[in-house]
């Protein structure tokens, strides 16, 4: 008797239904890379430059040496001529207007104190105010104010006829001022536009301001003397004309 068996079911392999991402293989392969692409490039060692280092050291040493020389030189002192009183242009230097001043040796051509005797034989090229250190450019051997064609005139002025601040070296106008008891038709007029004050005296016991010596052109000196003798002269200071 032949027995027919029940047919056994056939086994089939099951495949996954989900799709594998396209980049999955790339990601997996990238994660397993161990070649040169996955390594950092080596950094070359720093190259030492001895020439630049030596130059930097030389610059530092040079700066330190220059600073030291400046400090040492600032301690060097020289004797120069300082002016203590105002000197007008064209006036002579005297011992009374000069004093010794100790200054740092800066290389400027100040006149040395040892040359004061030679300076006293010369004249001021420009008006020099007190506190000035004398340089050779301020000194001239000949004076235009005391040269030919000039005259020194002494005036004895009363209070009000001259500014109280008048000093040697100032520039003044010499003005004729007619007296009240004189010619009533006479008018004031300027005799000298810019006269140089050579000397200023101290007030006397008579109340006058002392003698004031001015330098004028010799052509007008007789007129100035005549009016000064009668007290008809006044001086007007010109500060801007120094």
From TrEMBL:
Transmembrane region(s):
51-72
Q: What is the protein's given name?
A: SAF domain-containing protein
Ordered alphabetically, the record's keywords are:
Membrane, Transmembrane, Transmembrane helix
On whether Membrane is a keyword of this UniProt record, the answer is yes
- Which residues does the annotated region (Disordered) include? 1-44
């Amino acid at each position: 008797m032949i027995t027919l068996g029940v047919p056994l079911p056939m086994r089939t392999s099951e495949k996954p239904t989900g799709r594998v991402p396209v980049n999955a293989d790339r990601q997996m392969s990238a994660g397993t890379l161990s070649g040169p692409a996955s390594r950092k490039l080596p950094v070359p060692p720093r190259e030492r430059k001895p020439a630049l280092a030596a130059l930097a050291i030389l610059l530092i040493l040079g700066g330190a040496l220059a600073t030291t020389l400046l400090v040492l030189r600032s301690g060097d002192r020289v004797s120069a001529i300082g002016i203590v009183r105002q000197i007008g242009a064209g006036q002579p230097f005297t011992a009374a207007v000069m004093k010794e001043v100790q200054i740092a040796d800066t290389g400027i051509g100040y006149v040395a104190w040892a040359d004061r005797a030679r300076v006293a034989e010369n004249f001021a090229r420009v008006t020099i105010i007190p506190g000035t250190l004398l340089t050779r450019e301020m000194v001239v051997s000949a004076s235009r104010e005391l040269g030919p064609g000039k005259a020194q005139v002494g005036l004895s002025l009363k209070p009000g006829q001259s500014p109280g601040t008048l000093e040697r070296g100032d520039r003044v106008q010499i003005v004729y001022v007619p007296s009240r008891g004189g010619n009533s038709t006479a008018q004031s007029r300027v005799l000298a536009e810019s006269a140089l004050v050579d000397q200023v005296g101290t007030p006397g016991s008579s109340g006058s301001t002392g003698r004031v010596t001015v330098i004028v052109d010799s052509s007008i000196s007789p007129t100035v003397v005549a009016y000064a003798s009668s007290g008809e002269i006044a001086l007007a200071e010109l500060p801007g004309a120094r």
